[in-house]
Amino acid sequence: MADPDDTDLEQFGFATRAVRGGQHRTNEGENSEPIFPTSSYVFSSAAEAAARFSGEQPGNIYSRFTNPTVRTFEERLAAMEGAECCVATASGMSAITATCIGLLKTGDHIVSSRSIFGSTTLLFENFLGKLGIETTFVGLSDLSAWEQAIRPQTKLLFLETPSNPLTELVDIAALATIAHRSDCLLVVDNCFCTPALQQPLALGADIVIHSATKYLDGQGRCVGGAVCGTRDIVGDSVYGFLRTAGPTMSAFSAWVFLKGLETLQLRMYAHCENAIALAQWLEQQAVVIRVYFPGLQSHPQHALAKQQQTGFGGVVSFELKGGKAAAWKLIDATRMISITANLGDAKSTITHPATTTHGRLSPEQRQAAGISDGLIRVAVGLEDIEDIKADLARGM
Ligand SMILES: *Cc1c(COP(=O)(O)O)cnc(C)c1O
Question: What is the pTM of this model?
Answer without folding.
Answer: 0.96
